[in-house]
Amino acid sequence: QVQLEESGGGLVQAGGSLSLSCVHSGRTLNGGAMGWFRQGPGKEREFVAGIMWTTGNRYYADSVKGRFTISRNAAWNTILLQMNSLKPEDTAVYYCASTNTALVRIVSSYNYWGQGTQVTVSS
Measuring CA to CA, how many Å separate 14 from each of 56, 80, 85, 123? Predict the structure, then answer.
């Protein structure tokens, strides 16, 4: 079993920055990927960023490319999402998740999810 816990959400003005953290515990991940997703009010959950666990390759949604950065710590038990130049349309609940596949962008490929953290960007 894998447990994921996000932290770092909050309220920020447009143009500001936030950093989200996701700590995973439990069964060691072997391969696969971890990702960040978000779900805004009345919207479907969407891919934001992902990182392959063994290669470190990173993937981003077009809407956040150049503004958000996903990374992992040296102990390989935490992933971070640095969010800069935030926009009101970035407002959502942000979730981290893990998959044992290489389908980084596909919501349904992820089998473990955190409970989410709210990010609100005011205009």
Answer: 30, 20, 7, 5
